[in-house]
Amino acid sequence: MTRRYSAFGLFREGLRGHTGWQPAWRSPKPKPRYDAVIIGGGGHGLATAYYLNKNHGISNVAVIEKGWLGGGNTGRNTTTIRSNYFYPESVALYDFSLKLYEGLSRELNYNIMLSQRGVVTVAHSDAEMEIAARIVNAMQLNGTDAELLGREGVLEKAPLLNSSDRARYPIFGGSWQGRAGVARHDAVAWGYARAADAAGVDIIQNCEVTGFIVENGRCAGVETTQGAIRGDNIGLAVAGHSSVLAAKAGFELPIRSYSLQAMVSEPVKPCLDTVVLYLGTATYLFQSDKGEIVVGGGLDRVPSYAQRGNPPMQQHIISGMLEMFPSFGQLKMLRQWAGVVDVVPDSSPIIGPSPLPGLYLNCGWGTGGFKSIPAGGWLLANLIANGTHHEISRPFDLDRFARGRLVDEAAGSGIAH
Amino acid sequence: MQLFPCPFCGPRDETEFHFGGEAGKVRPEPAAEIAAERWSKFLYTNANPKGATREIWVHLTCGEFFLMERDTVTHAVKGSHSLVGEKP
């Protein structure tokens, strides 16, 4: 029985020398058969298992992870959560996720440290201000919060920004989403894992899927390094390795894998209380709770499965940071890392049935997988339980490529890839 | 900083190159008779292999399109080949 976390419990454990904490989830041996098997023990996979039980009463579920929980992109992202997209389909999806995030700490009884500190996207010319106004209008029409800021408004949000008249990318103004923010990424994975485990879900780590069991043209389970595990329905949530698993299942996806890198500085005193993105540099940054400046940017331009970033993009991101915050030139950088992301031609995810019946996809989140974890899990669980789309996931079906109905956020909201 | 071998110029900085696509993709013809699914496959779908791969790259500074064999995990380059005189 999972014990509830509370302030009182923390106080009590403090007095006892922290000797009473229990593991937050079990490490069971896989059973031969489950109602549903989820491949991928990152945020999306764990959330899928959680919502299968919560929304559909299906708890005979296994989550299979080749490494350790949240050790892929869930532990490698820059933790930003936002829904500042252009198309109605996208706002419906990402705002649904943001709303689920807003209630998640309480729902999971696990503090995910959601901090809705807002995201400001800075524009550098009159033309870019028109684009910023366009996306603000689109967001408001689509029912999420957005505000157009002038130069003074931007500098009020982030006073340390480069306000020089001779800046390469002068500040004309920007768009603001106040409900956006950051959360503790590991806590999201661990919170979903703990809640799913408490409901009876088996989380199986260090278990790699090596193939699919296909019977009568339908996916009936997976072959793994711990033996065959059968399931009535299989969900695939393996960001970065979707094409690799798809090849084992006998189909190809409209995905290319790239490295996306990020880095943090040494911790410093509080100096930045929002998330800042420059349209001109494509660099974005914020300050973590520990005081580190977290910096990210665009993709490495070489298709890659290496979980490390190449120097040219690192240089580009840091030069962007120095343009935006000249005073950050004094910072020492502490760590740099990368994750492998699934990039789809229209920069929107793929949620829906795969070409192999019985196997459902949740992939292609590109650079935006973390913010989508609750929605991705919720919608994949719905697909597995009902066999049909929810209206929010319908536009993101794999069939959009043949129908020509792309949700082109690369053009719509200016994603830098 | 990685060096990529241009068959025309020799080894040059990776930032001078642009990824073109996977080698061996052939445009389906006659275009007017091709079904939407097959066009979609040609335009969007990739093998996206983990490990050894054969890709078309362009060296932006000289404009040379060429075939590069490399590894998507180690980033090791196995070789590059000119496409001059090649048939698709």
What does the model show?
The complex is a heterodimer of chains A (417) and B (88). Chain A has helices at 7-15, 43-56, 88-102, 104-108, 126-141, 151-157, 185-198, 242-249, 311-324, 373-386, 400-403, 409-412; strands spanning 33-39, 61-64, 80-81, 119-123, 147-150, 173-177, 181-182, 202-204, 209-215, 218-224, 227-236, 256-267, 275-278, 284-287, 292-303, 333-343, 350-353, 359-363. With 417 residues, chain A is of the alpha/beta class. The radius of gyration of chain A is 21 Å and the shape is globular. Chain B has 88 residues and is mainly beta. Chain B has a single domain, classed as 2-Layer Sandwich (Folate-binding fold). Chain B has one helix spanning 36-44; strands at residues 3-6, 10-13, 17-22, 52-59, 64-71, 77-82. In chain B, the strands form two sheets. Chain B has a four-stranded antiparallel beta sheet, with no helix packed on it. In chain B, strands 1-2 form a two-stranded antiparallel sheet. The model of chain B has no long low-confidence stretch (mean pLDDT 94). The chains are: A alpha/beta (417), B mainly beta (88). Chains A and B meet through helix 8, strand 15 and helix 11 of A and helix 1 of B.
